[in-house]
Amino acid sequence: MNTKHIPKFLSLVLRHNPDTLGITLDEQGWTEVDTLLQKMTSQGKKVTMDRLKEVVATNDKKRFAFNEDETKIRASQGHSVAVDLKYEAIMPPAFLYHGTVPKFLKDIQQQGLQKMSRLHVHLSEDRETALRVGARRGVPTILTIRSGAMHQDGYEFYKSENNVWLTDTVPADYINLK
Predict the structure, then answer these.
(1) Where are the coiled-coil regions (predicted)?
(2) pLDDT per residue over 14-51, tens digit each?
């Protein structure tokens, strides 16, 4: 399997559709590495443990993680399947950022940011990351989220292993479009 296609395929399997390979994720999103590699090989997607380690280590978004002894693997966040990543709620910085495109702004102004099919809304610590995220769908617009105020008002925030901030929703009152 081409190295650049492995992260996309792993995202599909580990975040959205484990049935694609016929694997199961435990309640925290982990699956056995040996099983994953065997199932990939049986579907003609031969990937070695060394190549899998390389993908995990070099993925620009750090989307995947091994457990301590590298016998299990999971996606760090972005799931649309029910998992509990066991992230602890922590205090966010005063401001976080979200990249989007203009066609969604009217809905965002009315409804805020919703998790949609994912388990959480994804936010970034810096504008540059939010800009890259928004640019995947077109000309990006960066939203500034008053995350410190949200936290003071009782909203919980989590930080994934790859430094993505997660929350259940961002009401429109906490979003600055400028």
Answers:
(1) none
(2) 999 999 999 999 999 999 999 999 999 998 888 999 99
Asked if 87 and 160 touch (Cβ cutoff 8 Å), the reply is yes
CATH number of 29's domain: 1.10.10.970
CATH of residue 155's domain is: 3.20.170.30
DSSP H or E run through 140:
none
pTM of the model: 0.72
CA distance 111 to 106: 9
Listed residues 44, 75, 106: the one ending a domain = 75
DSSP 70-128: SSEEEESS--SS-----PPPBPPPS-EEEEE-GGGHHHHHHH-EE-TTSSSEEEBSSHH
**Residues 124 and 155 reside in one and the same domain:** yes
